[in-house]
Specification:
The protein is α+β, with helices and mostly antiparallel strands and 329 residues long. Helices cover 57% and strands 15% of the residues.
Length: 329
Amino acid sequence: MSSETTPLIWETDLPLFSRLMLTQWTLGMLATALVMALILGTVFVAQAEWDALLPMATLIGAVTGGLWLLGILIMAVLFRGRYRVRYTLSKRGLRCDTLDNIAKQANRLAIGLGVALGKGQLLGAGLIGVSRESEEVLWSGAFQARFDPIHHTVLMRNGWRTLLWVQCTAENYAEVAAQVSQHMTRRRTSSRLAKGSPLPAYLGRSLLVLLACVPLFPLAEEYDTGLFLPIFTLCFALAMVWLINLFGWVVLGGLGLQIGLTILAQFEERQSFFNHGEVYRAYEVLSGEDFSLFLIGGLGVAILIWLCHGALRGRWLAALIADQSDMGS
């Protein structure tokens, strides 16, 4: 039976201390630090707490460094530098399934502890881990293959990152590389890959989100609507750019609630400091500074609504959704 109809299946160990794995782990930690710095930095800058930026950066650096080292220790002690997987190469695509029982148990433990302790980050990490226990790229997708005969690897990459790391054995590398080239040539997989990296566009949208969210913080502080809503809106707006377009609805909800609370605050009754017993509404004594704050805040809200509209109408895809599309799923 020909290789056209018979899948090629093999099991192997991913070397966790290879240059490729260590690079990906380090970049992942740096990305985590950057996201934390952007979110917290935006909050401090919006409140003009400039003196908090250096301690914040130091703390984030220390936490990220600790997490990086913890990950290295887990790879060495728990996984012993190896991660067992199984690959299936067929005329449909190439799938990678996790076989390592320790990894599977750790993912499920993270989910259980996240639910029991109410830790969203732990729960999210577990869910992401479970979702990545089986990954597949289809030849109907849009990616290119990078072959490394020295390390017996084939990397499936889209415009900005590695979608799937294929670790071959010394014995089957030539056959795997030949079949991958054959399938991708026949299905014209790499020809569908967009020219240029989409990363600048995602970074640009992220910067726009940060700038648009800055005036929401002084608005919340001035009219005592709480900092939760601006932080909530900022986090979900960034998630809309990088994870899922549908988070745009959450952003719109957060904006609507803050706008509503700000409007209600204008009808609050206040006691006059000059005429004892006299009561007035907040909107009756709005100053030029208040109107300037409304104007800048309104501009930020308009930018966020525009970004949400583009995301929800599918005019651009979140990075994760775009990657899934490139993988052919």
